[in-house]
Amino acid sequence: MTAVARVGRFVAVKPGPLLWTKLITGLWLVTIEATNVGLFAISAAFRTEYSVAAACLSTITALCILAMLYVEHKHSIQPSTLISIYLSITVLFDIAKARSYFNRPGLESMAGTTLAILVLKSIVIYLEEKSKRESITNSTSHDELGKEDESGFWNRAVVWWVNSTFRLGFKTIITVEDLPELDAQLRSNSLLKRFQGYWNQNNK
Q: pTM of the full predicted structure?
């Protein structure tokens, strides 16, 4: 469930440097994936029906990622878990592919493009972990957001978002005002509404 759904209202995120950086990186990814198609097509020694088809599929996937980056950035506070997981998995395969290409004579160009794809995917993963808090157009939702709501997949997976609280606690005594906002589903007003609903159902 996205942070938008947890906050309980549609929240738009205005365009900014983060979005344009994502789109430029995604566009470069599409371009290099398309270059890979050409390299496989003109390489008679290593061209097969499967290699060209796989390269075409990768290009189509890169186009889909580019579109998802735009839609997800504008309509979701929380970065896309799907994009982060997919790119993280494919990066592992790209590492193996790049190593194999570098070790085979005549495939230096493909090795170079695969390495570039690997780097660009890593950049997108990093950008997906960046917070969009400053770009949220709805000021009410901005105030209601907790750090977990705006964190990316890896940020939440390793609980990195609590580090700022730990650092503050190491330096000084933490007060209630220093604590970040709770997840919307864990706040007392949300829990009260849920409890009231269950209470009313069981007392009919």
A: 0.69
